[in-house]
Amino acid sequence: MANAKGCLPLISELSPLTSASRSLLFVFCPVSHTHRMASDANARTLSAFLDYLRVERGSAKLTIAAYTGDLAQFAEFLEKFHRPLAEARREDVREYIQELFSNHLDGRSVGRKLSAIRHLYRHLLLDGKIDKDPTLNIDLPKQWKVLPKALSRDEVGALLAGTALSGTKFSKATASGHALALRNRAILELLYAGGVRVSEVADARLEDLKHDMGYILVRGKGDKERMVPMGVPAQQALQQYLKESREVIAKGKSSPLLFLGIAGRRLTRQRVWQLVGKASLSSGRHASPHMLRHSCATHMVENGADLRTVQTILGHSDISTTQIYTHVALDRLKSVYAKHHPRAKAKA
Fold first, then answer.
1. What is the DSSP letter of 309?
2. Catalytic residue (one of 271, 293, 294, 299)
3. Catalytic residue at 108?
4. Are residues 45 and 101 in the same domain?
5. Pick the catalytic residue: 221, 278, 327, 332?
6. Is 44 labeled as catalytic in the residue annotation?
7. Are residues 8 and 135 in the same domain?
8. For residue 260, what are the β-bridge partners?
9. 179-189 residues labelled b (16+ CB within 10 A) or e (exposed)
10. Does residue 271 carry a catalytic annotation?
């Protein structure tokens, strides 16, 4: 218990954080009295930064929890050199990245941790707490730029067609089964039509749907709002869900949310993942909500959509994030060319 007691004063300073965030700092909290001063300084540094993420940037709880774990892990690494976070050097960051790779961590995870560290030191630099950014001129790992997976148009068609057929099958069984099938189809159509995130689907409200305009108002990362257009199939699926299904699922309970779980309960993100995975069985390839989002963007780019439009629809804050879909589209074009062009495999 001595270890836990030594950490409690630090944890109490982070009261504005979620319990998950505090527990992550607790795990990495050093217990040696020799490092106590560095630990106190780190706790204050992390507390101020996480407050900034929550209050000024409006970051999601999951984002704050992830940053907490990544930064606390880096703080633990710096303890080897008896250095607090505010005194880290560029060599420390490089050695830390090298250690992560030596522990067989994949490039994408290393890139995420480095991104969290970058954000911390940019904040400290702008806040006047440090004079130099130790992450300056440190490149992200090459493996960070992993092409997102997307379904082909035929696979998306099979997935949505399978959902439509399941509605007919359920209608022969129970009214609630039919209602859930209509809800699931509306969710899948929206995920693909608007490229929305799974959290944006779960948080969507009835008042956000603008049927007459063919749009839905979406609240993305940082609580930023954007209007996302919907195609005719998505609009029809949503209209049918609202007309025939939502009240059956709600069972007399009122809720401002657009999509409901059984008895009017909130639909969780995990449940959306499950229903997408189950629906994708008909396409012959396992899919996730994020794959439908990638598929929406990829297919738009393949059909000639400009990146600014795709950026706006997806809610990317930086167009460099959207540019990856040009690589995805090019990769798809190369694949089709190699498969179908009679001279594609001809020897030089």
1. H
2. 293
3. no
4. yes
5. 221
6. no
7. yes
8. 266
9. bbbbbbbbbbb
10. no
Local mean pLDDT, 10-residue blocks, the chain (348 residues) = 38 39 43 53 90 88 90 91 90 91 82 93 93 86 64 90 54 75 95 93 94 89 86 94 94 93 91 92 87 92 87 86 78 76 64
Residue 329 falls within a domain, yes or no? Answer: no
Q: Is the same domain home to 104 and 126? A: yes
Residues 62, 51: contact at Cβ < 8 Å? no
Is 215 annotated in the active site?
no
Element (H, E) at 22: helix 19-28
Tell me whether residue 290 is one of the annotated catalytic residues: yes
The CATH number linked to 84 is 1.10.150.130
Q: Are residues 130 and 212 in the same domain?
A: no
| DSSP bridge pairs for 218 | 226
Is the pTM of the predicted complex or chain greater than 0.70?
no
The active-site residue out of 22, 178, 185, 197 is 197
Q: Please say if 169 is a catalytic residue.
A: no
Residue 37 structural domain: 2-144
Number of domains in the chain: 2
For residue 168, being part of any structural domain is answered with: yes
Q: Looking at the structure, do residues 188 and 132 belong to the same domain, yes or no?
A: no
